[in-house]
């Protein structure tokens, strides 16, 4: 029988404190704002993206109030689309820029959506075009980008085809607006990326009382009119965020459990643990929690499609130098259109560490190697910062992040939590002051 002592301490399971899902928080906020009456979000994510979303909804006529501990947000919704004029600041949040304009289009008046330089650079054309075809008067910057001006008297609905090859967020935004249209809306979705997010949207819409049908191909969705009813939501921990502590388990040979993230999760990014399994980690996805145990060595020599879980491809790419053979990740072309061009950013940072990398339009190959000290260019991309923090942890190399605080987009306490789980982690928590 094993007793206490150093080995027992080394083997002890680490229980990570992962904040709520950004995607669930911002969807639940929108649906609660669109429903009449009071809805509650328990354990919402409190971060730049969700606070921006909450503030935007307050400006659009809903009331979102937080309790003292920010553990429960109470939303008083209006039961209809918002009334303009309103100026909406989306900050860095893709979810705000893609979910809020369709919602506003179901209301009446004029609305102006804008965001940071980073968000202004991200594509919106398919969404702007769809709103125009539905009868909204839309004026956008070149290529449909922010700032976006809308003038609307509500949406009749109807049927439109939508190209979702750049982002699934356009589809989610239109779907969530659809029950507020006068006749209902049918979407014929083409070239969809990030499919699990669309399923998450539909699941949450159903929770708020929406009625819809999805055809057998999954590409045609018919949403009935009739609005929403208020509902309470318990927000699960964020699966994309959990990828960093799971990867940390894999590279340190420790066991990390994330409570509250289990087999029934609607977050596709929990699928990242199956990729870690290919690297040799042991994975248990239980009803209420997920556990990853690493053996400290990473197996490579595989090629994996991470198109459905692309927010986690950098987590794998950043630790891939520690694998015993090359790792290729493909299907991730749309990751070039996020907070940064993520393929380019990961490739350049790995090269700065002395690692051999090849990359193409929608793929990257990372070769085994010993990373050397480097300054990591985060490009204000939270996931670049968090991914390379895990490489620093796993390799013991000194990596300096040029913008450690950018993690506040989705996980303001990231460095502190990594340090709590893995004391002595080389990126100091003191670097975490907010921008
Ligand atoms: O709908 C969502 O909540 C999200 C969808 C994904 O974007 P794309 O659909 O643009 O890939 C993902 O990258 C993003 O972090 C969140
Ligand atoms: C792509 C991301 O964010 P968003 O599109 O919601 O801004 C992300 O969080 O990785």
From TrEMBL:
InterPro entries: Enolpyruvate_Tfrase_dom (IPR001986), Enolpyruvate_Tfrase_sf (IPR036968), EPSP_synthase (IPR006264), EPSP_synthase_CS (IPR023193), RNA3'P_cycl/enolpyr_Trfase_a/b (IPR013792). It holds the Pfam family EPSP_synthase. The keyword Hydrolase does not apply. The keyword Metal-binding does not apply. Its main location: cytoplasm. Its EC number is 2.5.1.19. The lineage of its organism: Bacteria, Bacillati, Actinomycetota, Actinomycetes, Kitasatosporales. Residues 17-418 form the Enolpyruvate transferase domain. Monomer. 3-phosphoshikimate binds at residues 22-23, 27, 167-169, 311, 338. NCBIfam families: aroA. It catalyses: 3-phosphoshikimate + phosphoenolpyruvate = 5-O-(1-carboxyvinyl)-3-phosphoshikimate + phosphate. Pathway: Metabolic intermediate biosynthesis; chorismate biosynthesis; chorismate from D-erythrose 4-phosphate and phosphoenolpyruvate: step 6/7. SUPFAM superfamilies: EPT/RTPC-like. This is 3-phosphoshikimate 1-carboxyvinyltransferase. Keywords: Amino-acid biosynthesis, Aromatic amino acid biosynthesis, Cytoplasm, Transferase. It is found in: Cytoplasm. Catalyzes the transfer of the enolpyruvyl moiety of phosphoenolpyruvate (PEP) to the 5-hydroxyl of shikimate-3-phosphate (S3P) to produce enolpyruvyl shikimate-3-phosphate and inorganic phosphate. GO terms for molecular function: 3-phosphoshikimate 1-carboxyvinyltransferase activity. The active site is at 311 (proton acceptor). Belongs to the EPSP synthase family.
């Amino acid at each position: 029988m094993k007793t206490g002592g150093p080995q027992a301490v080394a083997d002890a399971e680490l229980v990570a404190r992962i904040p709520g899902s950004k995607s669930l928080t911002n969807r639940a906020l929108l649906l609660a704002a669109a429903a009449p009456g009071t809805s509650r979000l328990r354990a919402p994510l409190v971060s730049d993206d969700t606070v921006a979303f909450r503030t935007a909804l307050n400006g659009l006529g809903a009331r979102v109030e937080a309790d003292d501990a920010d553990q429960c947000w109470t939303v008083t919704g209006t039961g209809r689309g918002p009334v303009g004029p309103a100026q909406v600041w989306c900050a860095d949040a893709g979810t705000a820029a893609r979910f809020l304009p369709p919602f506003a289009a179901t209301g009446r008046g004029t609305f102006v959506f804008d965001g940071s330089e980073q968000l202004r650079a991200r594509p919106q054309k398919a969404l702007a075009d769809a709103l125009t075809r539905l009868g909204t008067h839309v004026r956008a910057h070149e290529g449909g980008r922010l700032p976006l001006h809308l003038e609307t008297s509500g949406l009749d609905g109807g049927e439109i085809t939508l190209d979702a090859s750049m982002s699934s967020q356009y589809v989610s935004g239109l779907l969530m607006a659809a029950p507020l249209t006068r006749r209902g809306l049918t979407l014929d979705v083409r070239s969809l990326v990030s499919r699990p997010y669309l399923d998450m949207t539909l699941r949450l819409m159903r929770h708020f009382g929406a009625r819809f049908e999805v055809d057998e191909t999954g590409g045609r969705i018919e949403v009935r009119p009739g609005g929403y009813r208020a509902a309470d939501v318990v927000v699960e921990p964020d699966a994309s965020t959990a990828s960093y502590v799971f990867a940390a388990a894999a590279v340190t040979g420790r066991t990390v459990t994330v409570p509250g993230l289990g087999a029934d999760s609607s977050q596709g990014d929990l699928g990242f643990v199956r990729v870690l399994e290919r690297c040799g980690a042991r994975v248990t996805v239980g009803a209420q929690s997920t556990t990853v145990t690493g053996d400290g060595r990473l197996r490579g020599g595989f090629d994996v499609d991470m198109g459905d879980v692309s927010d986690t491809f950098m987590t794998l790419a950043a630790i891939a130098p520690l694998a015993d053979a090359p790792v290729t990740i493909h299907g991730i072309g749309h990751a070039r259109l996020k907070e940064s061009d993520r393929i380019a950013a990961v490739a350049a940072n790995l090269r700065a560490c002395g690692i051999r990398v090849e990359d193409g339009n929608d793929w990257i190959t990372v070769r085994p190697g010993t990373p050397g000290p480097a300054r990591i260019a985060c490009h204000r991309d939270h996931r670049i910062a968090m991914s390379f923090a895990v490489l620093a942890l796993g390799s013991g190399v000194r990596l300096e992040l040029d913008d450690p605080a950018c993690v506040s987009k989705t996980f303001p306490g990231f460095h502190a939590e990594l340090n709590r789980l893995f004391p002595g982690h080389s990126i100091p928590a003191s670097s975490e002051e907010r921008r």
